[in-house]
Amino acid sequence: MRIRATTRLLAVVGDPVAHSLSPRMHNAAIAALGLDAAYLGLRASAQTFPELARSVLAAGGALNVTIPFKRAAAALLDLPTDAVARTGACNTMWSDGSRIAGENTDVPAVAAQARALLPARPVRRALVLGSGGSARSAALAVAEHWPGAELWVRSRDVERGADFAAWAEQQGVGCRVWGVAGSERMDLVVNATPLGLRPDDPLPLELPGLEALRDAAVLDLVYAKGGTRLVAQARELGLAAADGRGVLVAQGALAFERFFGLPAPTEVMRAAVEDALRE
């Protein structure tokens, strides 16, 4: 990667961030279009994230934001989109010169991948695992693309689960906290937790819980070589399942178009992700 004085710097910011394939994916797209730009992975803390984000944007750069800063990113915006305003979460930031703008490209990306898993039937009931910014994006994706769907949330923190359900109700989405496995039949399960990033992570939903979901489709927003343990477990039970690589590409392509005002070379981006996950 050659950096010149004119090179526009872009980055994904998170903690952790070393696992992210966004730099590889975006740099492949930048190279394919011959753009004078470079995309990095930057680790931040809760204390350093706001100043880091402002500095990159003030220099003419742009950012993607991942766990755990999506809600902090939304708080920095002067120009949030409707999806950001509704979820309180932002994963794509850029500047118009004086103001910071932001989008939540996770919402359409999650919806697209969920539709791909369920091409022949609607989502009437969905279970979201987690209660952070990614979980809110998944909930809004379900609500917008399957109006009237019943939403459930499962969180390791009871209070955060209740807060999530209250937020969903404010958005006009009926939501209940999912507790005892075995009685609720779901069409879609979305893992919006970071569990699965490390090989020793527990499953975000253990086997008895998955069995209770019968023929639900499972979308894991985490991605890994060979798929995640959650995806493997779901497929062993005969469920349609996919890890987060498709969501990564879809949201990345939308972000790229915001950053550069050009159509994203989506197939180049997809190939870069697939190559990295085969290595």
Q: How would you describe this protein?
A:
With 279 residues, this protein is an alpha/beta fold. The chain contains eleven helices and twelve strands. It has helices at 22-33, 49-58, 70-75, 82-87, 106-117, 133-145, 158-170, 207-212, 229-236, 245-260, 266-278, and strands at 8-14, 37-43, 62-65, 79-80, 92-95, 100-103, 125-129, 150-154, 175-177, 188-191, 217-220, 241-242. The longest helix is centred in the C-terminal third of the chain and has 16 residues, at 245-260. The model has no long low-confidence stretch (mean pLDDT 93).
Write the layout of secondary structure elements.
Layout: E1 8-14, H1 22-33, E2 37-43, H2 49-58, E3 62-65, H3 70-75, E4 79-80, H4 82-87, E5 92-95, E6 100-103, H5 106-117, E7 125-129, H6 133-145, E8 150-154, H7 158-170, E9 175-177, E10 188-191, H8 207-212, E11 217-220, H9 229-236, E12 241-242, H10 245-260, H11 266-278
Parallel strand pairs: 1-2, 1-3, 4-6, 7-8, 7-10, 8-9, 10-11, 11-12
Antiparallel strand pairs: 3-5, 5-6
Provide tags for this entry.
single chain; six-stranded mixed sheet; 11 helices; 279 residues; Rossmann fold; six-stranded parallel sheet; globular; alpha/beta; 2 domains
